[in-house]
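fyi for ur records
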Amino acid sequence: MKDKEDVFSKFRDSFSKIDGRFHILEQRVPVELQMEYFKYSEQIRKERNELTDIEYDSFIEMLNDEETSTEYKRYVLTSLAASRQVRAFRALEEYVTHSSEDVTDWAYMALMESRISLESELSDEKQVYISTGLGGRGEKLRFYMMFPSKENKPFEQLHRQIIEREFAYYLESDDCEIERLTIHDIYVELVALVPVRLNIKDLLDKVINECNLYGNFLYNSYTITNVKELSEEEVRDVLDKKYGNNQSGD
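which gave:
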C-alpha cells in the first residue's frame, strides 16, 4: 500500500510543480504509436525548412488522394506539423475531421504538435504537453479503474445501487466526469476524466470506505491506469491473482 501511495503522490506532484499551459491529447492513441510519432517527428524537424507554396499545395493534394500510401501520408502530416505555419495548422485541423482510417491517430498527433509549436511562438507562457494511452480533455486525464468485490462475492442489488450513488456523488463533487460505470458480477469498471492535480487516491479510498459502510462489499485494493482499458481476459487475470481461480461468471 505504501508503494501505491508513493506512486500517486509522485504523479500528482509532477503536475503541481509545473508552470505553464497544459495541452492534453484528447484522443485515445496507443502509447507505442505516440512514441513512434515523436521519434519520426524529431527526424523530420532536423531535415525540413519552412514549406514553400508549391510544397504546401502538393502536400494537401497528396493527403486527399486515396492512392497516397500510408507511409507518405505520415510524412506529409509530420512535415506540416514541423513547419510551424498557421496555414499548416489549419490544414491539419480540417484534415482530422475526415482523415483516412490508416492515419487517423497520426493526424491527431501532428495536430497537437502543430498547436503547441504555434502557441510557443505566439506566447511567453510555457506549453506543457501531456499524453496518455487513454487521452483526456481540458486539464483532465482519462483513467480506467477496476474495483473487485470483497471475498469474491457477487454484488447484491442493494450493493449495486450504493455503488452507483456513491461513485456518482463523490466523483462529481471533485469535478470528475464519469464516462462509464459498469457493475459486473464481482467487479466494477469505471472510466472517468480526472483533474490532473486531484489527489485521486484519497478520493477513491473515500468512495470505497463510504460504500463499505453499507456492508463491507468492496475490496480496498483496486486497479487504475491511464494507458488502456483492460480487456475481460486481463481483468480475469487480475482477479485470479487476487482470489485464486475460484471465480464466479458474469
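The radius of gyration is 22 Å. thats all i got for now
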